[in-house]
Amino acid sequence: MNNKTKIYLGDAKEVLKDFESNSVDLIFTSPPYADRRKNTYGGIKPEDYVDWFLPIGQQLFRVLKPSGTFILNIKEKADRGERHTYVIELVLALKRQGWLWTEEFIWHKKNSYPGKWPNRFRDSWEHLYQFNKTRSFNMYQEEVMIPIGDWANGRLKKLSETDKIRDNAKNLSGFGKNVSNWLGRNYVYPTNVLHLATECSNKNHSAAFPDELPEWFIKLFTKEGEVVLDPFMGSGTTVIVANNMGRIGLGIEIVKEYFDLADNQLRQNLFVAEPKDSYDKTKIKRSKKVH
Ligand SMILES: C[S@@+](CC[C@H](N)C(=O)[O-])C[C@H]1O[C@@H](n2cnc3c(N)ncnc32)[C@H](O)[C@@H]1O
Q1: How far is CA 266 from CA 15, 49, 72, 151, 259, in A?
Q2: Of 68, 92, 157, 192, which has the maximum CB count within 10 A?
Q3: CA-to-CA distance for 7 and 236, rounded, in angstroms?
Q4: Does the Cβ of 30 fall within 6 Å of ligand 1?
Q5: Is 32 touching ligand 1 by the criterion CB < 6 Å?
Q6: 29 vs 199, residue with greater confidence
């Protein structure tokens, strides 16, 4: 249990101003998506989204260590038969803000139920954009290795001559592989696609992460004792998982009901959060709009 884990009730744009510069190792978050959940939180218009996000992005840039990573989970909606471009515009605006767009992961939602639309199929995946401040950021790839799997039994049994050398791709793409490198290994590196079920029903928040999602990125980008921030923490999944993994979790949430969910959960884990009166001093009352 980590007694430095802390959660804040308020608007991330304001609360972050009190955080120290270069103090966070990993930011893992899912902000409200444009035009979604107007009656609970969010409801930011897609055309206003970049302007709404950028001041928060600037604070995130300030608080992240140069060796740290920012993972942004977001998905554009379809609007009048077209995908909206606000997520693409946000990525470009974050680049202009100084962020390097270093990688993109896909969260494949394994348990999507079927649906029918006239011009598209069920949305069954979301982006996780990776941004960094520098090109040399901390990454602990061995922490997320996976069992090599059954393919190795057949494929590695009879190696051809090309399997034993670096075999350059036939399409001259420059990619190559040496299959024999995997002989005798039990674990391999994963891909950038994560296959995880969604999880909402038992968390009282309509957009809660499955625990495995932040867990995977926390293992990949931090070590024990390091700081993990979720500026849109909702029911607190990232902070709780980080705390349980021996990291210092920091979370910010604007809706009191969700803040209380996270607070109760952290207290159940025998963690004593900041005294209640100090939250009340932040005087943040949630209005219907968040910007
Ligand atoms: C997509 S949800 C996050 C859910 C979270 N990942 C979980 O596992 O429960 C986004 C959250 O951001 C909160 N939020 C919206 N605007 C905010 C702001 N300006 N500052 C802090 N939190 C905000 C919303 O109330 C909502 O709970």
Answers
A1: 20, 31, 23, 42, 11
A2: 68
A3: 9
A4: yes
A5: yes
A6: 29
Query: Pick from 64, 76, 74, 75: which is nearest to 100 by CA?
Result: 64
pLDDT in tens, 149-170: 776 667 666 777 777 666 666 6
pLDDT at 51 over 50: yes
274: nearest Cα among 282, 180, 222? 282
| CA of 206 relative to ligand 1 center, distance in Å | 11
CA of 129 from ligand 1 middle (Å) equals 17
Q: Which domains does the chain have, with CATH numbers?
A: 6-145+189-280 (3.40.50.150)
Ramachandran category for residue 225: left, alpha or beta (phi over 0 → left; psi -120 to 50 → alpha): left
* CA 273/CA 271 separation, integer angstroms: 6
Residue 21 has pLDDT above 80, yes or no: yes
Per-residue pLDDT tens for 201-226?
556 677 788 999 999 999 999 999 99
Categorize the per-residue pLDDT at 195 as very low, low, confident or very high, splitting at 50, 70 and 90: very high
